[in-house]
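Technical note accompanying the year-one report. For the benefit of new consortium partners, we illustrate the data format agreed upon in the data management plan: each record pairs a sequence with a structure-token string. No post-processing was applied to the example shown here.
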Amino acid sequence: MKKGKRGRAAVVVLGDFGRSPRMQYHALSLARQASLEVDIVAYGGSDPHGAVLDNPSIHLHTMKEVIPHGLPRIFYLLALPLKALAQFLVLLWYVCIRIPSPDVFIVQNPPSIPTLIAVKWACWLRRSAFIIDWHNFGYTLLGLSLGRSHALVKTYYWCERHFGSMADGALCVTKAMQHELAQNWGIRAVVLYDQPPEFFRPALLAEKHELFCRLKKDISHQHGLHDCVTHDIDENTGNSLFTTQIGDSLSMNENRPALIVSSTSWTADEDFEMLLQAALMYDRRVAAILNEPDSIKNEIIWSEISKGKQFLYPRLLFIITGKGPQREKYEEQIKKLNLKRVAFRTMWLKAEDYPLLLGSADLGVCLHTSSSGLDLPMKVVDMFGCGLPVCAVSYSCIEELVKVEHNGLLFASSSELADELLMLFKRFPDECDALKLLRRGAKESGASANWAFEWQQHALPLIEKVIAEKSH
């Protein structure tokens, strides 16, 4: 670090900073553990966590979106080069002129274009060190929509590889990615696994009750649906679907639905259709196990549940959080489902409420498949931090994170996920031993995770090294 003044770092995210948790944690660690002033250059849209906003050493510089999303394919292809050029010019102005000169730039990749090019130019101009945090490969994400053989994808790949190799240091999220970067890109990267920060933890009963009461309207009124959940909500009491308060005493409802949370960006690398089909299978299989005739009306079952009757298998309430391009499409599909024991709610939560929801849930579901097969889903890390077991789609390196039958289960089809739901939630909430075993494993995984420690051990030495080399 430069002597005689407090050092400075710049964190660059060509995306919504509020939806980039890992880069928020970088900013906090740079300020708290490295004692640096931190300038964040990113797009707005969602509020980052309060810990970021309240830190006096962190300064947020918000860029404006240049070209809107959701264009038809033909316009999308025409707009890509123009969008990249406009983003490049705006980003170049911010990193070269708008922010104070930093000792080091830390850049999220992807996106690679124009981020890596603009920041590399800024490093030449301002004599700053350049570190890339590899979350995934940008060319593989572009390939989801255009195909790997498309000329734009090949151009993107060349730029990503060329400018990626020009960085002074690199971080990445898995050992599989570290190997790929070393073997095929000539880049030596330090693995920094995602870890949940301190505000991801199991929720206390009082916190659950307050959260469920706050979310009561979102749960009861969404899309004008009438289902197994809306039938059981009384908005005129201080109680919730999951909790009851009598005087100063709080308790969990015995016939509450099992709460399953899935966080999604509603993009092509997450097959939400798989979750809808699994929910449908669960609903039909439970009806068959209980020998319920097809002619029985949903309202009869719901009435029995609201009167306190408990069945061998519970209702399932899926709360799906996140924003993205395919959300409305799947919301329309959800409206058309006719399910007796399963309900869906989609919502976007405040940054402070999301950890509380994970800490209050019974199971997490991860649909992330990875465009490269080399990254890990941050959402699962957060779930483990909250002691929440996970059912995740199986792919090449997911077992670096999800340990089967310890902190979660893997599935490759809707039918497998439905089988896991039946196995985990049989005799819920008191006698579901398999779920309790996974919860213990998830709590152990969360308790052993420590972002500040891992960052101190792996990221900080790299940052200090590249800054020292650049200053000589």
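Partners are asked to follow this layout when depositing records. The CA atoms of residues 362 and 394 lie 20 Å apart.
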